[in-house]
Specification:
Layout (H helix, E strand, L loop, with lengths): L3 E4 L2 E4 L10 H5 L2 E9 L2 E2 L2 H14 L7 H14 L5 E8 L18 E8 L2 H13 L1 E7 L14 H12 L4 E6 L2 E5 L3 E6 L2 E4 L10 H12 L4 E3 L2 E2 L8 E6 L3 E8 L2 E2 L7 H15 L2
Parallel strand pairs: 7-8, 7-15, 11-12
Antiparallel strand pairs: 1-2, 1-6, 3-4, 3-5, 5-6, 8-9, 9-13, 10-11, 10-14, 14-15, 15-16
The chain binds 4'-deoxy-4'-aminopyridoxal-5'-phosphate (PMP).
Length: 286
């Protein structure tokens, strides 16, 4: 079934949603994005995702996104495309401006605003459920990104290369290591359980402050865990009890092996199970 896409103020068939070749996202990756998970036909944590979109836009001096309008578009696309389990993807770029030139265009160039949905196929969801139960493998890679990873920019080449390396080595995720600390994944945040406490890299310019990360930190504290926002030393992985990822589609996912070495006893631990259950309850309360 062909889906409907929202592009620059109009609802159009997917095949007709086209942008010009001198679109700045195509030429310069000059744009930002968000991904929202849809559960049972409802968007989850839409507000914080919209707030982060606004922040990313400000940081890149893009025009302020119309969050109310995008919220209406979100509901309309979910309805039109009959999304029960799936995702909504938002991308805002500095738009089309030829001839190609690095500096921002002068005048009133319009941004490109794109919203599209993807259903999550039942077999993908089943695979995801299995991974939640059994845990996944990760590899470590050296950090090669810029110093503004807090902006959710579509400029993702180091993330793409890191994820591809993970896939080629049979792993789910690649963990970036910066100055001897595990800071985040190529498309997820990372947490460790060390000496009974939950540790995750602080929200700063070197990581994306995940919406799931923020939710999980809040939930963990409500459940009585101590959460420290500090670097996870690479050297401490061999003695951590649990390691896990958080992200919109990934949810709360145990990492049971890193670079071939087991984490803890190599199985999904109690902290992850408790956080997964709390996450499931939040989804059910939607
Ligand atoms: N870090 C990076 C680099 C990511 O790409 C993502 C996923 N977009 C995350 C963290 C997790 O963010 P969120 O929980 O908002 O999906």
């Amino acid at each position: 079934m062909s889906s409907t896409v929202y592009l620059n103020g109009e609802f159009v068939p997917y095949e007709k949603a086209l942008v010009p070749v001198e679109e700045r996202a195509f030429l310069f990756a000059d744009g930002i994005y968000e991904v929202v998970r849809v559960y049972g036909g409802r968007p989850f944590d839409l507000e914080p995702h919209m707030a982060r979109l606004v922040r990313s836009a400000r940081e890149l001096r893009l025009p302020e996104p119309d969050c109310e309008g995008l919220t209406r578009v979100t509901r309309e696309l979910i309805e039109r495309n009959q999304i029960q389990e799936g995702t909504v993807y938002y991308q805002i770029t500095r738009g089309f401006h030829g001839p190609r030139a690095h500096a921002f265009p002068t005048g009133n160039g319009a941004p490109t605003v794109l919203v599209l949905t993807h259903p999550l196929a039942p077999e993908k969801l089943a695979e995801h459920e299995r991974q939640l139960r059994e845990g996944v493998a990760a590899i470590t890679v050296p950090e090669q990104r810029w110093a503004r990873c807090d902006i959710k920019s579509v400029s993702l080449l180091p993330n793409v290369l890191a994820k591809q390396q993970a896939v080629e080595r049979g792993a789910y995720e690649a963990l970036f290591v910066r100055d001897g600390f595990v800071i985040e994944g190529s498309s997820s945040n990372v947490f460790a359980v060390l000496d009974g406490e939950i540790v995750t890299y602080p929200a700063c310019n070197y990581i994306l402050n995940g919406i799931t990360r923020q939710r999980v930190i809040r939930t963990a504290r409500e459940l009585g865990y101590t959460v420290r926002e500090e670097g996870i030393p690479l050297a401490a992985l061999s003695r951590c009890q649990e390691l896990f990822l958080t992200a919109t589609v990934t949810e709360v996912m145990a990492v049971t092996r890193v670079d071939g070495q087991a984490i803890g006893d190599g199985s999904v631990g109690p902290v992850v199970r408790a956080l997964q259950q709390a996450f499931r309850e939040a989804v059910q309360a939607l």
